[in-house]
Amino acid sequence: MILAKIEEKKQLADVIARLQTALETANERLAYYAQDIQSQKTYLWENRSEMDHIEKIASRESIQQAVSIGETVLAQKQRLLKLLRSPYFGRFDFTTTDQVRPEAVYIGVHHFYDEVERKNRVYDWRAPIATLFYDYETGPACYTSPQGEITGDITLKRQFRINNGTIELMIDSAVNVVDDVLQEELSRAADDRMKNIVATIQRDQNAIIRNEHAPVLVIQGVAGSGKTSIALHRIAFLLYRFKDTLTSADILIISPNRVFATYIANVLPELGEESIAEIGMETLAHELLDGQYRFQSFFAQSAALTEKNDTALQQRIRFKASADFLRLLSEYAAYVEKNRFVAEDLWIGGRWVPGWLLEEIFRKHRSLGLNERLKQTAQTTEQQIGNQYNYNLQPEDRRQLRAALRKMVRQSSLRATYQQFFTWLGQPEYFKRAKRGILEYADVFPLIYLKMLLEGVPLSYRRVKHSRFAHFQIDIFGNWRQVVIEGFWKAHQSENTRLYGIERR
Q1: Fewer Cβ atoms within 10 Å of its own Cβ: the N or the C terminal residue of the chain?
Q2: How far apart are the C-alpha atoms of 70 and 311, rounded to whole Å?
Q3: Rounded-to-integer distance, Cα 419 and Cα 413, Å
Q4: Residue 134: helix, strand or coil by DSSP?
Q5: How far is Cα 133 from Cα 156, in angstroms, rounded to an integer?
Q6: Are the beta carbons of 152 and 3 closer than 8 angstroms?
């Protein structure tokens, strides 16, 4: 073991030297691009009066390209600085079926390719080959690479704790994480902020992090079991795995409160990823409801549950947290959509407009709010009249069309429509307002769900491809449990909304 420590110290010193060389190169490139950008800006300013429009555009594009390259180099520099503090945390020796000697593979927070030797010195923990470190003991192993399945044998597994260029801990292990290492790392991380856990990821946790198939994933466990940490590492993996189609702007973290948001804020930057947009549950609810409805806070509902033995309240919350409730609400939304617009034949400006055409146009714009939907229906109908009859509607014709379409609507306000749902169920007692006539918290997200079914997802959230809900005591419909839910936001935009397959871990 003494000889192994000597060899590992030499290896670490060599990697650090290579990192420092790469850092110097990055600094030189940054200085070059900074000077180049400044020179181009000066040239553009001094010659602006002599340049034509096309030349100015070309010059600005050249500056923007240099800025973009400079930002890429700056990001590379940040990764190198992080690696200099702790280049890697694990090693395994792997011999493929077509090799004679094993290759030592080092795993770290980031990938490091040595441009001088043209060789990978450190592999990113999210890379396919890194699954060997997390999923296998010494012996036969395989992983899936872009070229296909690679098989071979692991002959050595080693773990490190490196701090500022010094190996503080080194231990050989047959499994992916030794309990002593895990306990020590956890004790070191016991402060007021969550830490990254790439050095101590367990096999089952790794399976959750790297799952690429479940559209909705539920991570369920008791408080302190690592649900949130695993979910954040999963975000980092998704951004790495799908870097061509997924960016930090496509992801939204929905958290229970600001304290929680502060607690998790440093994890993704530690892993080298940009900060992800975050919003609190109640803030999100206010935005999705356009600030039109006042509702009970989660804290107020919790207080009501704990301070009073209100069995009716408990039944309401339990019912609204059930899968049956969600299914019934989806059926009700389909019923409302089918009956909310009763199309009739119209005569506009002496021209006949069949009711079936109006209904077809109205259905086409179902992703819009009612007012915008009627506006688009009127505009499309006007275009159809113009195309069919070669007639342009007059102002009075337009007013008549809009008024007629409005009369065809058989829908109350969103709140009234939601309240009528319980009458439709034959259980009107399950809708009850809290103090001062505000909505109970258990009704807030069902109300939002109904709105999304009837009107679609608001434009401000349509870019979100992947969302993560974080609640430690209560899920999005008020059900008491320890759970983290994440999934693709587009799952909630389906025209035929239904319960999606959930994988429990």
Answers
A1: N
A2: 62
A3: 10
A4: helix
A5: 10
A6: no
What region, left, alpha or beta, does residue 320 occupy, with left being phi > 0 and alpha being psi -120 to 50 degrees?
alpha
Q: Are 102 and 94 in contact (CB under 8 A)?
A: yes
pLDDT at 97: 85
Please give the Cα distance from 153 to 142 (Å, whole number).
8
Residues of the chain with pLDDT under 70: 174-193, 457-463, 465-505
DSSP string spanning 241-280?
HTTTT--GGGEEEEES-HHHHHHHTTHHHHTT-PPPEEEE
Asked if 160 contacts 90 with a C-beta cutoff of 8 angstroms, the reply is: yes
Note whether 103 and 87 are within 8 A (CB).
no
In three-state secondary structure terms, 105 is: strand
Tokens of 83: 């690696």
Q: Whole-angstrom Cα distance, residue 48 to residue 447?
A: 57
Q: How far apart are CA 468 and CA 357, in angstroms?
A: 41
Length of the chain: 505
At 471 the three-state DSSP class reads: strand
Task: Say what the pLDDT of residue 425 is.
Answer: 93
Burial environment of residue 435 by CB neighbours within 10 A (0 to 12, 13 to 18, 19 or more): exposed
Which residues touch 164 (CB under 8 Å, ≥6 apart)?
85, 86
Distances (CA, A) of 25 to 18, 36, 65, 149, 267: 11, 16, 20, 36, 28
How many Cα atoms are found within 13 Å in the side-chain-facing hemisphere of 285? 24
> What pLDDT is recorded for position 329?
94
Residues 329, 452: Cα–Cα separation, whole Å: 12
CA dihedral of residues 75, 89, 175, 240 (deg, nearest 10): 0
What are the distances in angstroms from CA 485 to CA 196, 220, 505?
A: 20, 8, 11
CA distances 352 to 343, 358, 376, 393, 455, Å, are 13, 11, 19, 13, 29
Residue 435: its pLDDT value, please? 84
pTM: 0.70
Q: Checking phi first, is residue 390 left (phi over 0); if not, alpha (psi -120 to 50) or beta? A: left
Q: At a CB cut-off of 8 Å and minimum separation 6, what does 368 contact?
A: 376, 455, 456
What tokens does 489 get?
Answer: 């936001």
pLDDT in tens, 152-164: 999 999 999 898 8
Tokens standing for residue 334: 């389909």
